[in-house]
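Box 4.2: Ligand-aware structure prediction
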Amino acid sequence: MGEFELIRRHFQRAGVPAPASMVLGIGDDCALLQPSPGHQIAVSTDMLVEGRHFFPGVDPEALGHKALAVNLSDLAAMGARPLGFTLALALPEADEAWLGAFARGLFALADAHACPLVGGDTTRGPLNICITVMGELRPGQAMRRGAAQAGDDLYLSGRTGEARLALELLRGADWALAALGGDALARHPELRQRLERPTPRNGLGGLLGVLTGAVHAAIDLSDGLAGDLGHILQASAVGAEIALAELPVAPALQRLPEAQRLECLLAGGDDYELLFTAAPIARAAIDAVAQACGTPVTRIGRITQAPGLRVVDASGRPVTFAARGFDHFQGA
Ligand code: ADP
Ligand code: MG
């Protein structure tokens, strides 16, 4: 199977209706996209490297899902509606079964978000998946990291920490196995789901984007709650206080020793939840939006004038935790 046959067989889909915004898809030198009148284009790229972002031999269907999910999550965090994406793929070999499963996972999520694959590049090499996603939004609607204001409420969609716990169980971390048992991943299938098949929050992000004015800053959580919140705090020159008692805790995390539970919750990584700030006047509107898109949203703290992040327990005492966010060029 040659390069063009591979593309035709696995990535060019005949008979699947394309959205009107896709004027020209795979097959020419460029794809052509038509944004809605008066809209801006939002663009984001995320790369997944074998051995770095996923274990060799991971389920290719889940990998197809995750490669697009992490990109859609960036659009969600900006409040942009997906228009389409490109896929740059380096493959060690043209493995039919692998490609079929990868494409299944990829297109199931793409179809669910009406986000067509419009082009890409294919080459032989160590397994590497790079997706660029494009979306649209109205000028002024983007939820930028620098827009948080002192006095804002701080909100989290869903809950954090399960992906990290799954990763630690797969790595065989002693504390995780001791707390949950050797068959933890079998008894808690949701943990692996959260790691390998994250749900990007585009329904929520799109609706929050429409509330700009009241909703200020947003970010999607890829590197851990505390670290990613730090990006908002730095860009906005503000601080924040998180009320630990307000953070939703998954059942499996409740059984961890406190230090590890805090690390999963606050510095877990791979959560792909949205963290956002909004003026207190927007509380009812945010509850309504969360209801409308069926995504749980919790008010977990507030933005403060005083710089830095404080995490406090139910009686207001500061809590310390291992706060290292993930950085590819620091540490191990
Ligand atoms: P070019 O040499 O002009 O860059 P290619 O020969 O690389 O074009 O690709 C041919 C067509 O197939 C282009 O439209 C390109 O966007 C598309 N394509 C290549 N690889 C992929 C892929 N992995 N997924 C989707 N489309 C792809
Ligand atoms: Mg090319």
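In the box above, the bound molecule is magnesium ion. The chain has two domains: 3-137, 145-312.
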